[in-house]
TrEMBL record:
Domain AB hydrolase-1: 21-265
Keywords: Hydrolase
Listed GO CC annotations: membrane
GO-annotated molecular function: aminopeptidase activity
Name the record gives this protein: Alpha/beta hydrolase
Length: 281
């Protein structure tokens, strides 16, 4: 299904399941929807709407613009296309930041927010160095994989195959179960649509400037939308980063899944489903 934005960009989208609407916002930036398992897991609880963000995955390749405000407007286009007056939002990682930004901009259109594996609203510098160290340590459990990842990362140009190989090596660090981590990362890369590096770079630069701003804290303190924060205890991004958001929100609950990493639905589907069901009421 194609959704057209107000500036004419075509976005891929899909709806499935039954029940109240739940729009899913994938991570990245620069990636694509990997929520097929989540849609199946929640299919009897909600009508899930999946979409690929602009310039990414199955959506039209375009020149941006790569700003949070633009992506919030795109999310509004998805909501409008499906005729949803109000909807719950579930965002993962960067998608959690996007879903939060949409709730702050359009609180009257959001019934609930499920904020999964995000990094809070404090400065990026508060958590990113620890994340980078944890990433290297996880990949380095197999030294030759760390050497290969470093080699691929340093290359000024990579083939599409090399991009996929590097991504799988990096994504393998996202799982708490180390025995299945490589297999799980391979699943994330199938099908492979290619990472939009420009989108990733520009949006991450924007986040580095805007996270920690006093006006962001003030906006979160005024948000009356109910929020559920879902964390995997084994996420390599320090979970303390999310404390800034939890402290600011007036209507918030938090669930930490002890046996999961950055993609908690993959490692604790039962716990994840129960948490989301509680948010959907």
């Amino acid at each position: 299904m194609t959704v057209q934005t107000d500036d004419g960009v075509r976005l891929w989208a899909s709806a499935s399941g039954r029940g109240e609407p739940l729009v899913l916002c994938h991570g990245g930036p620069g990636l694509w929807d990997m929520f097929e398992d989540v849609a199946a897991l929640l299919g009897d609880l909600a009508t899930t709407v999946r979409w690929d963000q602009r310039g990414c995955g199955r959506s039209e390749r375009c020149a941006g613009p790569w700003t949070t405000d633009r992506f919030v407007a795109d999310l509004e286009a998805v909501r409008g296309h499906f005729g949803l007056e109000r909807t719950a939002l579930l965002g993962h990682s960067w998608g959690a930041q996007l879903a939060l930004a949409h709730a702050l901009a359009h609180p009257e259109r959001v019934s609930a927010l499920v904020y999964v594996a995000g990094t809070g609203i404090g400065p990026v510098a508060d958590w990113h160095p620890a994340y980078a160290g944890n990433l290297r340590a996880r990949i380095g459990e197999v030294p030759e994989r760390l050497a290969r990842w470093r080699d691929l990362t340093r290359r000024p140009q990579r083939t599409d195959e090399e991009d996929r190989e590097r991504a799988v090596l990096q994504w393998s660090a996202e799982f708490m179960d180390r025995e299945s981590a490589q297999e799980q990362a391979e699943r994330m890369a199938e099908p492979w649509f290619g990472i939009n590096d420009e989108c990733n770079k520009v949006l991450n630069l924007e986040l580095s400037r805007t996270m920690g701003a006093p006006e962001l804290y003030a906006a979160c303190r005024s948000l009356e939308v109910p929020v559920l924060i879902v964390d995997g205890a084994g996420d390599i991004r320090p979970r303390s980063a999310v404390d800034s958001l939890e402290r600011a929100l007036p209507r918030v609950r938090r669930v930490i899944l002890p046996g999961a990493g950055h993609l908690p639905w993959a490692e604790d589907p039962k716990g994840f489903r129960e948490a989301v069901a509680s948010a959907l009421g």
